[in-house]
Structure to design on (471 residues):
């Protein structure tokens, strides 16, 4: 996983794109090999490299797309190279907001309070999820921040205190004529929150007659293009896009599946499944199932079921029972009962797993993450380690995410794509990203900005630094 070594210059910027419109550029000469190259955490070693997963080959489409996917029907380039062009996330719809009174709340603003769907708690997938803790009744939350209610909510073109026409015109001027003012685009996009980004994208398309994403793809290239396109999609659109990257083409990118699907709230899983179906015309659970096998497939089926316990309180008696069950399923028996361990770590609440992570070493003198390293291998080990490491330390994954950022930069060559999506995904939650940056500096005696500056150059460097400095 994190100590996996890369050959053939993985992480090097891809060559310049071909001259035809919409080309991302030629793929680099290497293929994705899986895992992280990286960094031992301060107190223990990250996982040993997992066995190489054989490529699954091109995926057969599962049903006809409901609308053109991000990348049309172009083949997916190897992981580590910028992706093919994609169409913008979502589209205007005349329908009222999902689960809210018709046409009273726009797509660009948080929905109003509303009762639970049907007046009952949610259990079955396919019905609207219960509101995330802290989001307010009916609020759309993703990556820990409010987001515009996904389609079929009615979009709006204005937000109080934000002038999308000004920013849209600024981008139009930066991309008009010969040459591109990349710095103007970076300065325009970096400060925006999810609502502002959504309104800007829709305003730009209305003013210019072309989506913001297509403009960025046409005017930019290489890792700068990838960074700003991912940023322009917003939190939910970006994660849907990354899931497509993880499963499209030859091989499966396990790190993306781990980071996008594991440890998510029921509401987030609902939005990902609905959004993936809307954008790509495929069932996400069926797509992921086609990429995996055996018990790892069952683990991700649990994650995609959207059935986690999200009670804010912690039952300490159940915590102690789970600690003993985990021990008996792992170190306490010959062989490992993988499904029993998965069942606990993928169904319990974050607070409950944090309590397990605190109690397990007190009872059995080994950390939860170290137990997983000892008992598992391959992709299942990496996924469960990702969950366990988030629960240890601060319990919010701040230490883990700081370590993952360092893992993307440490060793032979920079793992550019990992560095980009970890920075972009974390930056949406400004408060948490500030904690990650502080943790990074405490662990590695340098600022995240300085580390990124040492790994990147040119406008690509300015884009990532601009995102970091906005927090």
């Amino acid at each position: 996983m994190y100590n996996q070594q890369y050959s053939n210059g993985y992480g090097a910027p891809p060559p310049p794109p071909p001259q035809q419109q919409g080309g991302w550029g030629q793929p680099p000469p290497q293929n994705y090999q899986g895992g992280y190259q990286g960094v031992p955490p301060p107190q223990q070693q990250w996982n040993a490299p997992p066995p190489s997963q054989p490529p699954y080959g091109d995926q057969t489409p599962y049903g006809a797309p409901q609308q053109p996917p991000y990348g049309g029907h172009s083949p997916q380039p190897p992981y580590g190279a910028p992706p093919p062009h994609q169409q913008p996330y979502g589209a205007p719809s005349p329908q009222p907001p999902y689960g809210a009174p018709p046409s009273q709340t726009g797509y660009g603003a948080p929905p109003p309070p509303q009762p639970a769907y049907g007046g009952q708690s949610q259990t079955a997938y396919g019905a609207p999820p219960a509101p995330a803790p802290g989001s307010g009744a009916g609020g759309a939350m993703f990556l820990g921040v409010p987001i515009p209610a996904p389609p079929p909510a009615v979009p709006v073109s204005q937000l109080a205190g934000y002038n999308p026409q000004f920013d849209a015109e600024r981008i139009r001027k930066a991309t008009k004529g010969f040459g591109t003012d990349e710095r103007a685009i970076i300065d325009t996009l970096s400060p925006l929150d999810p609502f502002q980004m959504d309104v800007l994208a829709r305003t730009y398309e209305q003013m210019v007659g072309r989506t913001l994403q297509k403009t960025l793809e046409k005017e930019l290239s290489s890792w700068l293009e990838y960074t700003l396109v991912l940023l322009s999609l917003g939190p939910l659109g970006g994660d849907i896009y990354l899931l497509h990257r993880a499963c499209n083409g030859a091989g499966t990118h396990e790190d993306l599946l781990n980071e996008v699907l594991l440890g998510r709230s029921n509401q987030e899983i609902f939005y990902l499944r609905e959004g993936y179906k809307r954008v790509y015309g495929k069932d996400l659970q069926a797509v992921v199932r086609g990429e995996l096998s055996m018990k790892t497939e069952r683990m991700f089926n649990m994650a995609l079921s959207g059935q986690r316990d999200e009670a804010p309180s912690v039952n300490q008696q159940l915590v102690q029972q789970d600690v003993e069950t985990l021990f008996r399923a792992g170190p306490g028996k010959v062989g490992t009962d993988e499904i029993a361990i998965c069942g606990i770590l993928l169904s319990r609440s974050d607070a409950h797993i944090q309590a397990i992570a605190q109690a397990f070493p007190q009872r059995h003198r080994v950390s939860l993450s170290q137990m997983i390293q000892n008992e598992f291998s391959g992709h299942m080990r990496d996924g469960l380690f990702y969950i366990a490491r988030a629960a240890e330390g601060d319990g919010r994954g701040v230490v883990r995410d700081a370590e993952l950022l360092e893992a993307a930069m440490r060793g032979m060559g920079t793992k550019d794509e990992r560095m980009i999506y970890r920075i972009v995904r974390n930056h949406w939650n400004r408060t948490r990203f500030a904690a990650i940056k502080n943790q990074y500096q405490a662990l590695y005696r340098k600022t995240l900005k300085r580390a990124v500056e040492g790994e990147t150059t040119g406008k690509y460097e300015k884009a990532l630094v601009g995102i970091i400095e906005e927090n």
Q: What stands out?
A: The radius of gyration is 22 Å. Confidence is low (pLDDT under 50) at residues 1-12, 14-76, 85-138. Strands lie at 141-142, 145-146. The longest helix spans residues 194-208.
